[in-house]
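Forgive a beginner's question, but might I ask you for the amino acids of a protein and the tokens describing how it folds?
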Amino acid sequence: MPIARVAATNRLIEALPRKDRQRLLAGCEPVELSFAEVLAEPAERICHVYFPTTSYISLVTPIDGCASLEVGLVGDEGMLGISLILGVDISPLSALVQGEGLALRMDAAPFCRELDFSPALHGLLKRYLHVVMGQLAQSTACTRFHVVEARLARCLLMAQDRAHSDAFHGTHEFLASMLGVRRVGVTKAATSLQDRKLISYSRGNITILDRGGLEAASCGCYEADNTTYARVMD
């Protein structure tokens, strides 16, 4: 069944001047993304860019071919395929859907033509690329220096921001893969957060019960990411 065309709610697209926004939207199609759907693989050619609206996408780097680690999360504040602005059409990371929902998709070739045609789009995405680079560095430091419980709290806050809901989906297996830890590590951290009545977790369904408490349990990387985005993009 075809998906009805919806108004864009992606913050990057909304930040464009009206004419640039309308021209970009004319080349996009709304698509529905499913949980755990793979949108990109390392070293594979980028065929489409995605502007999430109600969905969100994990950026994952493989480790030794047998494990993986989430290094970024893209929701309605960003886009997937930003390396095209550098003239690189090969994906550096895996991208899989963490939060199902809608996105606006555009073929890579017309997107690159739009970059050449629209200085406003090009300038906006250069700033966004700067934000992504900072977030990747922040994520690396977070993984090295912060405990699993604080990292899980940060992950859940990021997911809640992009889901725009207190309730969303995330299995133990998926969270363990995203955090680069064993399943038992996620179970222990999630149980601790649940015992403190910060979250409710059952059969992969997560509900944030105490947003302020979860922010306190998170490491400072969550606030650092938000500050960087606000400083550069707003």
Q: What stands out?
A: The mean pLDDT is 92. Strands lie at 29-33, 38-40, 48-52, 56-63, 67-74, 94-99, 101-107, 167-169, 199-202, 205-208. Residues 119-145 form the longest helix (27 residues). The radius of gyration is 18 Å.
